[in-house]
Every structure is written in structure tokens, then in C-alpha cells.
Design a protein that fits this description.
The longest helix has 25 residues. The strands form 2 sheets. Strands 5-6-4-3-7-8 form a 6-stranded parallel sheet, with helices on both faces. A two-stranded antiparallel ribbon has the order 1-2. By secondary structure, it is α/β, with parallel strands linked by helices. The radius of gyration is 19 Å and the shape is globular. Bound molecules: 3-methylbut-3-enyl trihydrogen diphosphate (IPE) (2 copies) and magnesium ion. One 3-methylbut-3-enyl trihydrogen diphosphate binds next to β4.
């Protein structure tokens, strides 16, 4: 085994890295509260952590990273918090656009961009378009994303195609259905990480997580550092993925 990525005592096997890591970045509010600070400070620190984890992912050679940044249900939060989250997203995008170009990162949004204010929508579209041909890594950001919503939308689009006579019902299989999801062109996640101690999916990638390995940690997202990331990847490398089959050693 080639030894590499030996930060602290964690040694990963480069031949067994996940192809796609998805992360539910949770616990910003509780992190801030634990320090006697308003929730927004947690979101600010959380955005910095996201940046570090994105670059670490690229450095490790993991080709796909999906970050759950804002859910469909997060619109139910207080208006002030939503406003600050959108502001932070804008600041992040402005600061990182050049970096994405420089580092060859392809940026992609899953979720309903049209739920956002026009200027933010345009920013997201511009970055997606400009980085479209980058091939060093795909950074997929889930924004106004809900798994049930994605499946229902896909079904509606599919039904329209059937109605127009372009697809017949017997042609519908898993492969075809995938083409109607926001994540078309992206392989299913191999590893899902959720921080903050919650052990639920919270409507994230319901279709795509069918055979994903789950890693839960009680660490709040703003405290999730490169070493915690390596721990999650190490845990992944110890798993035996069977996909329903029987493996004999
Ligand atoms: C995750 O942290 C960030 C978003 C959902 C936008 P939270 O804001 O959910 O923080 P907690 O879970 O309340 O601590
Ligand atoms: C999930 O976290 C969404 C994001 C991390 C963006 P939430 O904090 O919204 O999830 P619940 O409400 O605890 O399930
Ligand atoms: Mg939360």
C-alpha cells in the first residue's frame, strides 16, 4: 500500500478513496451558541471550513464533492437568518470564483436556483457556465435543495416527455430516470458525512444515497477540520461495501 496523506497518525490508502463525498454541514448555530455568539458567527466560520474542505478534497484527488448548503426547508427559518445566509453565499461566490477558475474546479448547483433573488441566480449561473469545462474536480452545491422535491420534479418532466410521445412508459428504467434528476452526470455519493450529532438525512439526496456509506460525527461543522475529514475517509476505507451481494474472504 502506498502511504500517503499522512497528517497526524491517519494513513489513507489512495487506491480506496471515495469517488464522491457528500456532506451535510450541520451545527453552525449550536457552535455559535456554545460560544455565546449569535448564530451568524457559526455560519461565517462554517463557510471558511467549507473552503478548506473543498481544497482538501481536490488535494486528495477525490473528483466529486457535494455540499448541502441550504435546504428547501431552510426557507422556514427567520427572515434575518436567511438574509445573512444569502449574503454569506454571495460573498463566498465572489471570493471563490477566481479560485475555482485557477484550480480547475467545475461548479454545479443542484436544487431550485429560481428560489433565489435574481442577482444571486445570475451569479450562480455565470459561475456554472464559466467553469463548465473544468475537469480537476466537481464542486456540487445543494441550494434550495430537497430530495423529495427533486424526485417529484424529475417525475413531472418525465411525464411531460411521455405525454409528448417522446418516451414510452416501458422505456422508463433507473438509468433513464436518473437523467431527469438534478444530479445527472454525477455519480452517486460513496460517502456521506453529517456533522453535529444528528443522525438523519434531512431530505438530502434521497435517491442517490441508496448504497452510500454513512459517517456521523458529533463535531459541529465549524470545528470540522482536515484531520476530522481524514478520520471520516479512514472510516470509509474500513467498510466492506457489499451492494446486496455475498463476499467471502
Ligand atoms: C447548518 O447549521 C447550516 C445550515 C443549515 C444553513 P445550522 O444552522 O443548521 O446549525 P444548527 O443545526 O442549528 O446548530
Ligand atoms: C440540513 O441541516 C441542511 C443543511 C445542512 C443545509 P438542518 O439543520 O436544516 O436539518 P434539520 O432541520 O436539523 O433536520
Ligand atoms: Mg442544523
Amino acid at each position: 500500500m502506498n502511504q500517503c496523506f499522512n497528517n497526524s497518525h491517519i494513513v489513507l490508502d489512495p487506491s480506496k478513496l471515495p469517488r464522491h463525498v457528500a456532506i451535510i454541514m450541520d451545527g453552525n448555530g449550536r457552535w455559535a451558541k456554545s460560544k455565546g455568539l449569535p448564530r451568524i458567527y457559526g455560519h461565517k466560520k462554517g463557510a471558511e471550513v467549507a473552503k478548506k474542505i473543498i481544497y482538501k478534497t481536490k488535494e486528495l484527488g477525490i473528483p466529486y464533492l457535494t455540499l448541502f448548503a441550504f435546504s428547501k426547508e431552510n426557507w422556514l427559518r427567520p427572515e434575518e437568518e436567511i438574509k445573512t445566509l444569502l449574503e454569506l453565499l454571495k460573498v463566498y461566490l465572489d471570493a471563490e470564483f477566481e479560485e475555482m477558475k485557477k484550480r480547475g474546479i467545475k461548479f454545479k448547483v443542484i436544487g431550485d436556483k429560481e428560489d433565489f433573488p435574481k442577482d444571486l441566480q445570475e451569479k450562480l449561473e455565470l459561475i456554472e457556465k464559466t467553469t463548465e469545462k473544468n475537469d480537476e474536480m466537481v464542486l456540487c452545491m445543494a441550494l434550495s435543495y430537497g430530495g423529495k422535491n427533486e424526485i417529484v420534479k424529475a417525475t413531472r418532466k418525465l411525464a411531460e416527455e411521455v405525454k409528448k410521445g417522446k418516451i414510452s412508459p416501458e422505456d422508463i428504467d433507473e438509468k433513464l430516470f436518473r437523467n431527469f434528476l438534478d444530479t445527472k452526470d454525477i455519480p452517486d455519493p460513496d460517502l456521506l458525512i453529517r456533522t453535529s450529532g444528528e443522525m438523519r438525512i434531512s431530505n438530502f439526496l434521497l435517491f442517490q444515497l441508496a448504497y452510500t456509506e454513512f459517517y456521523f460525527t458529533s463535531i459541529y461543522w465549524p470545528d470540522f477540520d482536515e484531520n476530522e475529514y481524514l478520520k471520516a475517509l479512514y472510516s470509509y476505507q474500513q467498510r466492506e461495501r457489499r451492494f446486496g451481494r455475498v463476499y467471502e474472504s
